[in-house]
Every structure is written in C-alpha cells, then in structure tokens.
Amino acid sequence: MNESIIIAILIGWIVLSMLAGFIAKSKGRSFFWFFLASILFSPLIGVLAAWGAWSNAAEIENDKIHVGELKRCPRCGTGIRLDAVKCRECGSDFSQKNPSSEQSVLRPSPGAIQLGRSLGRLFRK
Description:
Elements: H1 3-26, H2 31-40, H3 43-52, H4 57-67, E1 70-72, E2 79-81, H5 110-122
C-alpha cells in the first residue's frame, strides 16, 4: 500500500476517534475514555457508542455552573439560570437581592476546568 494512503487512513482514524470523544463530552461523558476506545477498537464503534450513550445530566449541569451559565439554588442545590427569580424545584424566591451576595467571584476558565477533570479522571483509582 502507498505510504500516503496509510497516513490518510491514520489521520482519518484519529479524527473520527476525536469525534467520538466530542460526542461523548457533549453528553457529559468522558472524552478520554471514548477517544481511547475508538482508537483501540474502531472509530465507527466509538461514534455509535458515544451517540447511543445516555446523557449525564448532573455532569452537564455542573459544567454549566462552573462556566458561569447557571448558579445553584441555596436552598435545594439545583442548577438554575442566572436571571431566575424562582427555583423550579423548591420554589425559593430570588426576587429580593442581597447586596452581600453580589460580590464578584473569580472563576476558572472552561479549559482549566476541563483539564483538571481530565487529569483527575486519569489519576483516580
């Protein structure tokens, strides 16, 4: 086989394996493990498995809270929109603003959060 064909196949294999990882990440699953499974077995199997995987709603909600798209209800801990007036789960009312809670908070970037989670998953037992 021609070397350029082999290189093209390898590049396609890696790109499709990354696609499986990104699909899994969008569903709150591990990019790394789906990427690794796709590299080892087949990108087609990896993409189908990632596409068929259940969404991890809790992980997606935590990501949105860390990025700053959502905040936690102080009463029940559910993720709610930043402009919410009332919690959809427990009914807590947020219409009265508390000036002490409006302090600015430094938040890590989404890339730093993703890197930390990926490293944490790698070093878990």
